[in-house]
From TrEMBL:
Keywords: Lyase, Metal-binding. Residues 7-274 form the Pyruvate carboxyltransferase domain. One of its GO terms (molecular function) is hydroxymethylglutaryl-CoA lyase activity. NCBIfam families: PRK05692.1. GO terms for biological process: ketone body biosynthetic process; L-leucine catabolic process. CDD domains: DRE_TIM_HMGL. Belongs to the HMG-CoA lyase family. Pathway: Metabolic intermediate metabolism; (S)-3-hydroxy-3-methylglutaryl-CoA degradation; acetoacetate from (S)-3-hydroxy-3-methylglutaryl-CoA: step 1/1. The keyword Secreted does not apply. It comes from the Bacteria. It catalyses: (3S)-3-hydroxy-3-methylglutaryl-CoA = acetoacetate + acetyl-CoA. Its EC number is 4.1.3.4. It comes from Rhodoferax lacus. This is hydroxymethylglutaryl-CoA lyase.
Length: 302
């Protein structure tokens, strides 16, 4: 199959990345990170989540961050909304897209959002209806699409089931998420193909954590089945608070480098992206978790 010639990356660093930080990250830093990402050419940024501040205190400043960003035409700003309460708070902050998030694993669903997969769909139903009625795009995330920290390997049929349930609710796009980064290329392809039974190729994206160093290989394997949209995280920020040991998403810098090297366009300026990654890494007091960024930064300094 011919590989896609253009790829869209959604930077989830401000949300997926920073939700797991032990140290408090000021809203002003998050706002500046969003600014730097859009200046680097990102056209979709997952800014924050409207979840319980008792569960994820790192996102308690959601409304402040959404109010502070300088919106740029052509950029889509998305937020996570697990239930109607979250949606009602989110909608006041004018997101372009909301994300409902379910899991292909029952145990993870309970740990992450305190309900079963079936109950999560009932929680999402009014959220999806309200968002679509308001003209807000609706994306769904399917966590643990390959493996679960509590249940082990997850069969593609479980992904297919959740994709079907999301489709029935009216969710417009699904992200197939390897939450704990255990996936390998063929397994990831099978999970994506399961979602593709209910969504077309323009409505499915990949979301790969790099815990086992497989994320770039999994991205390439996804391109081979025609997937052209991916969630990535600047400086490889992140991890899920309910998936112990899970590291961040694949670094946006690493994916951009690979894609540009293959002649696939992203619209992203790698130098400016690296600066954004360096900015947030400095704020967190560490080096970016991006091999490309560390290599190119060393070259810059030499
Ligand atoms: C989903 C809930 C809220 C259910 O939590 P719950 O306890 O079942 O909810 P509840 O309806 O029984 O309400 C209990 C309390 O929470 C409050 N509450 C209820 N809803 C909200 C809300 N939206 N915003 C703010 N507060 C809320 C509610 O007001 C009440 O407050 P109290 O009366 O006790 O003071 C909770 O389990 C939660 O917040 N979980 C956090 C989930 C999360 O953020 N996980 C990380 C993101 S998912 C992820 O990272 C994976 C992904 C997407 O990246 C893909 C991948 O890699 O897998």
């Amino acid at each position: 199959m011919q590989l896609p010639q253009h790829v869209k990356l959604v930077d989830v660093g401000p949300r997926d990345g920073l939700q797991n930080e032990k140290q408090a990250v000021p809203a002003a830093v998050k706002i500046e990170l969003v600014q730097r990402l859009q200046d680097a050419g990102l056209t979709e940024i997952e800014v924050t989540s409207f979840v319980s501040p008792k569960w994820v205190p790192q996102m308690a400043d959601n409304a402040e961050v959404m109010a502070g960003i300088q919106r740029k035409p052509g950029v889509r700003y998305s937020v996570l909304t697990p239930n109607l309460q979250g949606y009602e708070a989110a909608v006041k902050t004018r997101p372009d897209e909301i994300v409902v998030f379910a899991a292909a694993s029952e145990a993870f669903s309970q740990k992450n959002i305190n309900c079963s997969i079936a109950q999560s769909m009932e929680r999402f139903r009014p959220v999806v209806q309200a968002a679509l009625a308001a003209g807000i795009a609706v994306r769904g995330a399917i966590s643990c699409a390959v493996g679960c920290p509590y249940e082990g390997e997850i069969a593609p049929e479980r992904v297919e089931l959740v994709a079907r349930l999301m489709r029935e609710l009216g969710v417009q796009h699904v992200g197939v998420a390897d939450t704990i980064g255990v996936g390998t290329p063929r397994k990831v392809q099978r999970a994506l193909e399961a979602a593709l039974k209910h969504y077309d190729i323009n409505q499915v994206s990949g979301h790969f954590h790099d815990t086992y160093g497989q994320a770039l290989a999994n991205t390439l394997a996804s391109l081979e089945v025609g997937i052209w949209q991916f969630d990535t995280s600047v400086a490889g920020l992140g991890g899920c608070p309910y998936a112990k040991g899970a590291t961040g998403n694949v670094a946006t810098e690493d994916v951009v480098y690979m894609l540009h090297g293959m002649g696939i366009s992203t619209g992203i300026d790698l130098d400016r992206l690296m600066d954004a990654g360096q900015f947030i890494s400095d704020a967190l007091g560490r080096k970016p978790h991006s091999r490309v960024s560390n290599a190119l930064m060393a070259k810059r300094l030499s």
